[in-house]
Design brief:
The protein is built from three helices and seven strands; from the N terminus they run αβββββββαα. It is of the alpha+beta class. The chain has two domains: 1-30 and 136-179; 33-125, Ribbon (Umud Fragment, subunit A), CATH 2.10.109. It has a seven-stranded antiparallel beta sheet with strand order 1-2-7-3-4-5-6, covered by helices on one side. The chain is rod-shaped, with a radius of gyration of 26 Å. The relative contact order is 0.16.
């Protein structure tokens, strides 16, 4: 029973690790982007620690009610994922009034269309925490490398056990035929 639990746990960690790695690689090979939600402002719709999958958006097609991700005007390098609650100046250069679902009021400054990275097409809860952990050396060791080595060691042990059984069977058959 312990061996089954141990093996299942290893395979689960390995699966989670490779799934997270797949998400990261697939985002680099396509036009979609992955962002980790680091605040609870979109809860409960998009919980903190989720990964949001963002597709590039044609700005004139963005509608009220859609969730967009944009570059922060206040903090360089930071992105924000909020819901569009109003579209301002819809002609040449639209701007968007946004609001986090958990926030009581809309964001103070409208978001110029030039800062919009795209619209959120779906999210995966809690996966962001795992990816953040895997990005650290300790996380990579614990989630990917160690389970992979443990699975490999168990498989080698299993092969050695099968080899021993096969030798015993061959040896027993030789004894029977030599009589």
């Amino acid at each position: 029973m312990r061996k089954i639990f141990h093996r299942t746990t290893n395979w689960l960690f390995l699966f989670i690790g490779f799934f997270a790695l797949f998400l990261v690689i697939s985002s680099t090979l396509s036009k979609i982007e992955l962002m980790i939600v680091l605040s609870p402002s979109m809860s409960p719709t998009i919980p903190m620690g989720s990964i949001v999958v963002i597709e590039p958006a044609n700005v004139p097609e963005i509608r009220v009610g859609e969730v967009i991700t944009y570059r922060s005007m206040e903090i360089p390098g930071r992105t924000v994922t909020h819901r569009v609650v109003e579209i301002l100046n819809q002609e040449a250069n639209p701007a968007f009034r946004t609001q986090g679902d958990a926030n009581d009021a809309p964001d103070l400054d409208p978001v110029p269309s030039s800062l919009v990275l795209g619209r959120v097409i779906f999210h995966l809860p809690l996966i962001g925490f795992i990816i953040q952990f895997i990005r650290k050396p300790v996380g990579f060791l614990l989630v990917i490398l160690i389970p992979a080595v443990l699975v490999l060691v168990e498989e080698v042990q299993e092969l050695l056990n099968l080899k021993k059984k096969a030798k015993r069977t061959i040896h027993a058959n030789e004894k029977i035929t030599s009589r």
